[in-house]
Design goal:
Chain lengths: 620, 345
């Protein structure tokens, strides 16, 4: 069996000091070749060794045949943001192998399929040619099955090279192929074959090793979309209307799976939920607002293009005060954009969705646990404030695998908002003074002065319950009106309601260190910022941090900027949308403090994309 | 049973016709839509429907304003242009005990809302769907709609050079379980159809020619009062006997077909010139095609299928409205969360 090692000894790589539990592995394969299981098994085995990991899928907008990459970052400190460069690389894709090699960092280990017509050319990397075909042929007699297990061979080779425990791989395989023992066994034999081949043929040690730790005990691995789906499940969602679009699809699909499993009435076996795969996003939004109008907890999930289509309904729901929860799992826009890449490009579009004067509640989770909790909270806020609520995720959070602590069960009762029942009406009529008995409910009255009105649900058996919902101008009694004073009263009250919401939306994550430099970020930038702050601290720059979890801003955001000297706002979009929103809302005198850092190439942001610009700007 | 005390007549709930009325109409005097509103009021009154059980839904247009003009004591929702079907679908999902009536225009349904209309019918969402069809856009002042007949003219004389959409043919083709056509100027037929639509479970489409007196009631319009009266060919004379008043109706077997509605009500179809079977889908389609070719305007019950399951029933939902299920029914316990978390370890 031929072993191809680059003759040069890879620029002294083999003599370097070994890096333990701090590197990342990237695998390049062909979309549709079944590499996903191998990659997940790899991820999970490392996780099972107690080492913090994250897994990112970098995939094309196609079903089969195009290049796809998977990155696993293992890091003893728990940094799980993307890293721009990978220490280990597995090249299985003939189309990209030359490019893959070219972009390697010096000192990387380049494991490649030596069956491909390719000769390594980099002198500063260690190239390890692995004859996948021959190894698979030995372990798998059935020619038809070979293709399915080939990818497992690199799991074995890596296991031998960097020290992944084979027992953990076996356990991870058992989980991956639960209920299909034959498949698990066959796959493990391929792993073993790769391991044995490496043990026999590679008589050197690479300077990257994994060693067992204890940092993942009890933790879970989950994608953000699944986490959000769980939030919806436990929030008692009863109506789901959706239209497929990457990267939001798995949110609804997971939710539907959970609903079907956990939400059938135990006595009758009947569903306590209704799901519609709508004909488009216009319909999905219409179904959500129709259902919410009638009192259901209803949701939909989409991405930027779907948000555009939903806009007319969103404006109507804002103005007529109908709840409804919309998840936006962002991808790179506009239109098709880069449909399988990530961005935070919809922030403005969500906050001011639709035409005319509108302002919406937008919740912005950064982690799977927040995706779960804010999904849950979105329904409470939506019903309390009787308004659409957006939950803004992105592809990175939604579709990638993250480590998390098991989610807490959220114990507080569901907040269904101020719903007036027939019994309430009867009681109010009894208590009302003579002459005011017909005036005990008005749909759009500002009952408490906080801008929040009360509603009755269709079907309420009381003669005073009914009102008419219309997108045209209306009075506090829901009567049609085009009078200027009625309109301004109404939209001013809506603004008042929005002000009230500032006190109810999730407060930011804040870490005040009394430092010169402050950082403001939101959503998935969190991971990169955490790492960047440590890197900056190592360079002598200590930082304060605030991560916005919702729009409208809570008062603490303004205060944070006020007390800061310089504020770096991290945006994963070209125009610095968060920086712009902040400038609009803070004291104008504080605006010059704002400096914008933007990352928008479709890849999840990495720590260096924050560290470098901060260092650069701090020089001036 | 006759009331001895003078005063307004009441229905079986003790409610008067007035209890089924709405706000005063702001449409043009003489608009066909107002006539339809009147028949809707009458039908709900006669059927003795509790107003609070009704959800009135519409899109945008003169026609879509009409839910404000009937059933004051029912919740109403004037939504966005062409998208009432989705709102109705959501509403019925949330509360299957409601009786939904949607009112739409031909522009609302056959242009901007065509997609949603089609999918509503495919799903057979239980509701009454009235299209107040005047062949023009009323509210935007008189442009052609997609149901305007080929060659018919606007007030300005401009002729329509596109073929019309026949909403009934489309509905039959899509398997809509109740398809009827009527005319705002034929109260007797319209009331019978509305009442039958109330007794039906599934989408009941009523395509009602409703002349726009302001923009489309002139010579050259095929949807004017005169044209509708002249071209109208009723398929049968309709009578409706609700389930709650099962008196022996004198039904002559030779001359009359009886369609039994799912709630036990009976719709009688007294044979006119043709021998027409509204349960035969292929025949319904053929009859519509034939009449369209002749420029006739067929009215009556075109197609009905009382067997087809409606969307809400097919979802196997609990009997109570989803909207008001207590949290004990919709929030799985901690054990479920723990189980899910365990599976992710
Ligand atoms: C998205 C959108 N586009 C256009 C309009 C303008 N618009 C209002 S009513 C209408 C046509 C209504 O015609 P039809 O449904 O036939 O009802 P009619 O007024 O004739 O009863 C149009 C185009 C609108 N309200 N919304
Ligand atoms: S414009 Fe036509 S459709 Fe509109 S109210 Fe007047 S008559 Fe009726």
């Amino acid at each position: 069996m031929a072993v191809t090692l680059s003759a040069t000894g890879a620029g002294g790589l083999l003599d370097r000091e070994t890096v333990i539990n701090d590197f990342s592995i990237q695998v390049a394969t062909v979309n549709g070749s079944g590499s996903q299981s191998a990659n997940l098994v790899l991820l999970r085995s490392i996780f099972r060794m107690g080492i913090p990991v994250s897994g990112k899928n970098l995939f094309p907008s196609n079903i089969a045949g195009l290049p796809t990459w998977f990155t696993i970052r293992a890091n003893k400190h728990g940094y799980v943001a993307r890293k721009a460069q990978n220490e280990l690389f597995v090249a299985m894709n003939p189309e990209t192998i030359a490019e893959d090699e070219a972009q390697l960092m010096p000192g990387a280990v380049f494991i490649y399929n030596s069956d491909l017509k390719f000769t390594p050319s980099r002198e500063d990397v260690l190239a390890v040619g692995v004859p996948f075909g021959a190894i698979v042929a030995q372990t798998c007699q059935e020619v038809k099955l070979r293709k399915l297990v080939t990818n497992m061979v690199y799991v074995g080779v890596l296991a031998q090279l960097i020290g992944i425990d084979l027992n953990e791989i076996e356990a991870a395989l058992a989980k991956q192929f639960k209920g299909k023992e034959k498949a698990a066994t066959l796959n493990f034999s391929a792993v073993q074959a790769g391991f044995d081949w490496a043990a026999t043929n590679l008589d050197f040690k690479v300077p990257y090793r994994l060693e067992r730790m204890d940092a993942t005990a009890g933790k879970i691995i989950i994608e953000g979309n699944r986490a959000a789906a769980l939030g919806c499940l436990f929030a008692g969602t009863t109506v789901v209307a959706w239209y497929p679009i990457t990267p939001s699809t798995s949110l609804c699909e997971n939710l539907i799976g959970y609903l079907e499993k956990h939400r059938l009435d135990p006595e009758t076996g009947k569903a306590t939920f209704g799901v519609v795969q709508a004909e488009d996003e216009l319909a999905a939004a219409g179904i959500v607002f129709g259902a919410s109008w009638a009192g259901a907890r209803a949701m939909t999930a989409t991405s930027g293009p779907g948000i555009s289509l939903m806009n007319e309904f969103v404006g109507l729901a804002y103005f007529t005060e109908i709840p409804g929860v919309i998840f936006d799992v962002q991808r790179v826009g506009p239109s098709t954009g880069l449909p399988t890449r990530t961005q935070q490009g919809d922030l403005m579009a969500l906050y001011h969705a639709s035409h005319g004067d509108t302002k919406h509640l937008v919740l912005i989770p950064a982690t799977p646990q927040e995706a779960y909790e804010l999904a849950y909270q979105a329904f409470d806020l939506s019903e309390r404030f009787q308004t659409p609520v957006f939950v803004m995720l992105d592809l990175d959070l939604g579709m990638n695998s993250w480590m998390a602590d098991p989610f807490p069960y959220l114990d507080q009762p569901l907040d269904r908002g101020p719903v007036v029942t027939a019994e309430d009406l009867t009681r109010r009529v009894e208590q009302a003074p003579e002459g005011a008995k017909h005036d005990v409910f008005g749909r759009y009255r500002d009952v408490k002065g906080d801008g929040i009105p009360e509603r009755t649900l269709p079907g309420t058996p009381h003669p005073l319950a009914a009102y008419f919902t219309r997108g045209s101008g209306h009075t506090s009694e829901a009567k049609y009106s085009e009078k200027p004073a009625d309109y301004t009263w109404l939209v001013d009250r809506l603004a008042r309601k929005h002000e009230t919401a500032r006190k109810y939306v999730p407060t930011p994550v804040e870490d005040w260190q009394g430092a010169e430099v402050s950082i403001v970020a939101y959503g998935t930038s969190e991971y990169a910022v955490q790492e960047a702050r440590d890197l900056l601290a190592a360079q002598g720059i200590s930082t304060n941090y605030l991560r916005v979890k919702a729009l409208p801003f809570t008062p603490s955001v303004k205060e944070f900027v006020k007390k800061s000297r310089r504020v770096y706002v991290i945006d994963q979009n070209r125009d610095g949308q968060m920086a712009s929103l902040l400038k609009l809302e803070i004291d104008p005198a504080d605006a010059p403090k704002i400096r914008s850092i933007r990352h928008y190439d479709g890849m999840p942001i990495d720590a260096m994309s924050i560290v470098e610009p901060v260092l650069e700007m701090e020089k001036h | 049973m006759a009331t001895t005390t003078p005063g307004p007549q009441t229905n079986r709930l003790g409610l008067t016709l007035n209890d089924y009325k709405g706000a005063p109409s702001t449409l043009c005097a003489g608009c066909g839509h107002d006539a339809i509103t009147g028949q809707i009021v009458r039908a709900f009154y006669e059927m003795g429907v509790e107003p609070h059980r009704v959800a009135k839904l519409s899109g945008i247009g003169c026609s879509s304003k009409t839910p404000a003009y009937f059933l004051n004591k029912a919740h109403g929702f004037n939504s966005v242009h062409g998208r009432m079907p989705a709102v109705a679908t959501g509403t019925m999902l949330a509360n299957r005990q409601l009786l939904a009536i949607g009112v739409s225009g031909d522009g609302d349904t056959a242009s901007i809302g065509m997609g949603q209309f089609i999918h509503l019918l495919r799903r057979n969402v239980p509701m009454i769907y009235v299209v107040e069809n005047n062949g023009v856009y009323g509210l935007t002042k008189g442009q052609f709609s997609a149901t305007a007949d080929l060659g018919s003219t606007l007030k300005s004389g401009v002729a329509n050079d596109l073929p019309p959409v026949d909403l009934c043919a489309l509905a039959v083709q899509l398997g809509c379980s109740f398809v009827a056509r009527s005319f705002s100027g034929d109260p007797k037929q319209l009331v019978a159809l509305l009442e039958a639509a109330m007794a039906h479970r599934g989408t009941a489409l009523l395509d009602v020619i409703s002349p726009c007196v302001t923009f489309n009631n002139h010579e050259g319009s095929t949807k004017s009062y005169t044209a509708a009266k002249e071209l109208d060919i009723p398929l049968h004379t309709l009578g409706f006997i609700p389930a709650f008043s099962q008196i022996e109706a004198e039904i002559d077997p030779g001359e009359t077909r009886v369609v039994e509605m799912h709630d036990g009500s009976k719709l009688t179809l007294k044979k006119l010139a043709r021998d027409y079977d509204p349960t035969d889908r292929a025949a319904a389609m053929a009859t519509l095609m034939e009449s369209n070719g002749k420029g006739e305007f067929l009215t009556g019950l075109i197609y009905v299928n009382e067997q087809q399951p409606d969307f809400i029933s097919s979802l196997n939902l609990v009997d109570e409205p989803l909207a008001t299920l207590p949290s004990s029914k919709v929030r799985p316990g901690k054990a479920v969360l723990d189980q899910v978390m365990e599976s992710l370890k």
